[in-house]
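Q: Sequence in, structure out?
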Amino acid sequence: MDPSENNTPGSHDEETQGEHKETQSQSNQEEENETVPLIESGAQADAEPKVITENAVRVAFLPPAEEADLPISESLVHGDASYSADDNSSYSDNEADIDQDIDDALDEGYMGMECTLERGFSLNEAAIARDLRYERYDEVAVKYERSHSFSKYQPSLKHFIPVRKSSAEKDEMPLDSTGLYGFVSYSWITSLMWKAYKKGLKEEDVPICSKYDMCDYNTDRFEAMWNEEVKRKGKEGASLQRVVWRFLRTRLIMALTFFMITLIMGFVGPTIFMRFLITWLSTDEPVTTGMIWTAGLIFSEFIRIIIFGVVWSISYRTGVRLRAACLGLVYKKLMRMSSLGNKSIGEVINLFANDAQRIYDFVVLGPLIIGGPVVAIGGVIYILWLLGPWALFGMLTFLLFYPFQYGISRLTGYLRRRTVTVTDERVRMMNELLTCVKLIKMYAWEKSFTSSITEIRKRERHLLEKSAYVQSISLAMAPTVPVIAAIVTFLAHIGAGYNLTAAQGFSVFATYRAANFPLAILSASVRAWMEFEIALLRIKSILLMDELEPYLKTPQEPDTAVVLDQATLAWDAVSSFKKKKKKKRRNKKDGITPADQLMPKVVDLKHIDVLFDLCLSIKKGELIAVCGSVGAGKSSFISALLGHMRLQSGEVYLQGTCAYVGQQAWIMNASFRENILMGEAFDAKRYYRVIYACNLTQDVGAMPAGDFTEIGERGINLSGGQKQRLSLARALYANRDIYLLDDPLSAVDAHVGSHIFQWVIKGALRNKTTVFVTHQLQYLPLCDRVVYLREGKIAELGTHSILMEDNKEYAGLYRTHMETVENQEKESKTEETDAGGRQRQDSVISGGSSLNGYQKNSPEKSPVKEVKKKPEDGQLITEEKLEKGDIPLSTYNWYIKAAGGYIISTLVIFTFAANVGSTAFSSWWLSMWLSAGSGNTEVVVGNGTVISDNIADNPDLFMYQTVYGCLILVILGTSLIRGFAFMKTTLKASSSMHDQVFVKVFRSPMSFFDTTPSGRIINIFSRDMDEVDVRVPMTMETFLQNIWLITSSLVFVCLVFPHFLPFLVVLAILFLFIRSIFRIGIRDFKRMENVSRSPMYSHVSTTVNGLATINAYGKQEMFTKKFMVLFDENTCVFFLFNCAMRWLAIRLDLLALLVMSITAILSLILRGSVEASFAGLALAYAAQLSGIFQYTVRLSTETEARFTSVQRISNYTKCLASEAPAIIESKRPDPNWPKYGRISYRNVQLKYRPDTPLVLKGITFDIDSLEKIGVVGRTGSGKSSLGVALFRLVELAGGSVRIDGVDISDLGLEDLRSRLSIIPQDPVLFIGTVRYNLDPFEKYTDEAVWSALEQTYMKEKIANLPLKLNAPVVENGENFSVGERQLMCMARALLRNNKILFLDEATAAIDTETDSKIQRTLQEAFKACTMITIAHRLNTVMACSRILVLDDGKVVEFDTPRNLMANPHSAFAKMVAAAESSIPL
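A: Exactly. Output:
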């Protein structure tokens, strides 16, 4: 071979490259040109950011389109898949230019900010502080290691050292280093409580979670035990209850041991010391004897208080550990799945929101169930010994209450289970509503959704009413049972002719009171058991869900990347079965609520084969295109390579790491940069090359804070194209071996699409293995091979040229595509899927908020200028406001009004007074009876008469007995009335609040949904509503009851001992001081706990939606770690809130002990001047105060803390702005409006929020009746904003829009939106039936619905479903492919038959053949209406009457396609020329 031939290319390249990099050798240039490399190594970029080494790998990129409108290389135009040397030279020239740009940018000061940028993506100082705090968790955390030695108990046993010197860091949990005194008295939290009182608590004041309570540590321990259980017993036989017992048995046994000591101490006080003290009062024994009994009474109560503090201290920590372990394990399980199967997002969020509390309540309250039987046995023995067998009638009454309470609790548990199911349904519906709120507003479907939610809420309220009434009776009966038991005991005893002394009577009465706490706690304990069982069943159902079995193997040949060997793969699909009786019941409600019609109560999973007998081998570095019609299995093909399906037969081999770009882009609520990095280390050069390659430079430049700009949930503030390019940039930055691209060009215009194909797919990924699914067949000739799928099978395989020569289906499809003017264009994250029910990311209408104010308003900027923008500017999501100070009176006022007003509320409070008053009066009546004694009745003893000392000889015995006995009926009657009245008023309040906040949120403008995470709104409707429905009433009812009990107790003590009054004043001052100081800390902890939940819920929701992407990139550990930290943050404030309550409780118990001590001492001093019966009454009620006083004060604080949920709901109700009214009666349009469909935009100015720039800048144009208008323009030019203005999703900043001469701003929103139709870019189906999705208001006949389906080619598909029009549509419409969903959206628009139709790239997810049919349908069915079509693919609008060209929010051109094409300098003509250059000839 002639050496000159060898040298020519090298010399040419050397000359070309010499202009840019003179120092590089010829051999290096040749090597570089032979291979277009991907990404520069991170290590080199960090070490020498400005030097490009010989071995550096680089991303291929293209300068911004405006600056370099370079034609696509001739090789592309002629369909040649290879690049020429000249192309490589040009490519390298451009690459070197960009290298220089980036180097200059780094020189100008970018590296000076490296410390901030490497940290990642914080938007402000608070966020940076939060990141630093999260990093501390890694430093503090300890890893769980299995140990059988006694040393594992050392950290807990150290708490029994009397005093320990704190060695913990300032931000660590002080409890870990506290001694016995601090452990028992909770003094370790005093400093935080004091700080709260002085300054209020901030996030940074709270210590980080204890290392032994952390989610990671406890999840690892719980997971190890669960895995052992499954291994030993098998999946079906595994008992989660057994694992829970193993997890907490040691701490539980310790807590129960201490609890038994408190029961003994509580029993010893009244049975021994109080009885002897009252006996002593009526004798002449020396004072020292009385002092001994008084001291014994006080000491036994003191020991009870202290030991009880230890019980709670142990239980609280055990509770938070089990809570963390269970939910941590559930999250880790979710990370090992590719979809939720038969679970909905609402169910999962509800589990994290409400079942967490149930788990904790079980650990804290459940074990206390043992107290009831122990006290009952002790009470029986004592009363039998003291009064004899007749007294057992009273004890029998007491004991019968146990099965009654148990039955009540079982009933409550049953009702709770039913309620939870309905609540799940409501939360699921709310989640769907929030996801699709934009579409619901555009369809004017608010009424339908409101009626659905209202119907579900009505059912929920009905169950809540039953549950609350049962619970209320239980609660009302608890304090009355000791009184009724005492009445029965004394009536039986005296009726049998026995005597009863004051010492006996009030000793027995105090014993019943002492036994009452375990009894009162019994209902709470049983309920905690019931609800815990429900929670465990829900958790176990997730833990037992089938995980995907790994089936990917490594191929034998080193040069092979992917091999499919006769592989048949299936999806897990949801199938539903309903019981006949349920069907009958629900048919009555058809048309009322979609959730009723369709959400199956019995769901099962089955496997549906969707890919059959696939045989394919892909070499490393090969570019494989995959195409096929709707439902052919293209997206499933990608999922099969990711390992997300079930391999039924055959083998799948894959070598190397994967990057995945989904058809529906998954976007995190984080900064733009964090979305690209996704946990990878930041490498400046690699990062900016990716930005250039994905054509994102201009987009970043236009954002308020550059790439620090926060992206909303689901990418709400990005257009469809931006979301897809961001997803592509993430894949490119990840630098993986195999790239699986599921239609990545669907959402971008032709120019950007061809740029990305050339510079990313054919350039940057040139040496990577790439599987490229596409509907854009013009790119297929440039791929190495083409796979044509039909019905899940590989119908054709080979190079494009060979397949064209074969002249089969593929050749026909390709020719049809290239010839048809109505070429389909996919605008945004659409997705082909089988009907197998695969879990997918939900979508909202394309860039509805478009850029939310981020628009292309400046020329290309360098990276430096972008970075220097203030990060605060880019914050989209508003921080959740943490309320400060007292709960305002207006909140209580709002709650009272919601409950029915002040008169009703006052009457309800008086029912409490009547109930407690009747029990108090019975005690007072007993004292009067005992004081009256025998009534000075003389009895014959021997030969003489003496005054009897037997109470049974009183002549008024019948009167005393009758009144005393009738009081049982009064007590029971007032209990029932009180329970019913309270239940009705509180549920009226919660239902009224729910309805108000629901309407207010639903009627909010779109800007609210753009800036508020759905997790925060779901928090209001799940956890906060649960608080208001269940916990606020329960806490408040007990509080009101106890207030009256305390009042009656203090009144009795003061009546018997007036000298107690001065002490009462001092005690009241002391009590008010303690409460006023430390309720602030408790309230602040509760508020912080409320706020800390939202990020956790949002994270869970984001995770569930992005499972496929997270698993594809192997980021499970990163997301799990973030969840653990967010959960630990919540655990910490949740634990501190409960400890703060107990801190207050133990101090108030000691204060109540002072009351009893003073009463005992006064009875000691005033012996003889006060009758023993009344002294006994005072002592019995003073002893009762000890437990009830602290509990009531704690309840008052807890009620206030729980009212933070009411306050949050109130704030939403009062502070949210509302859209315009749905209907304005005085401005209702004519029923036939719009008659002609003329649209007039006059100087229209639009901005998405007050603080964002204008996106439409004074545009003016007119559309005539029946015109078909095409709207074109680059991303961010304002195309989607035209629809936003037309549908009034955002009110105009200036100008007006008129339809048939009517200013639309004068109309009600329902009147306006219901007269317009939209076919969205992203097809969205709602939970319901097929019919409900097409016709939610049941306006049309079945014939009309079938006709619409026929015109959209869906009739055959729906007719083949078992239930036809009543076939269920599951969450996100996942049992239909995206193409089928799009066709159903078209059928929906056909049914509405409005005069104006807005199409947002509506045929994106449809194959060429169906598309051509649909285009004909559109032309025929909508010929009598005005159509506005947004298009990126320009030939879809060539048949339009006129073309509207937008740029930067302004009208550039508006004329017929012919006139615009006739002028070669017109913007539209240039666009067409650029687009055509990307189509191979």
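The chain has a mean pLDDT of 75.
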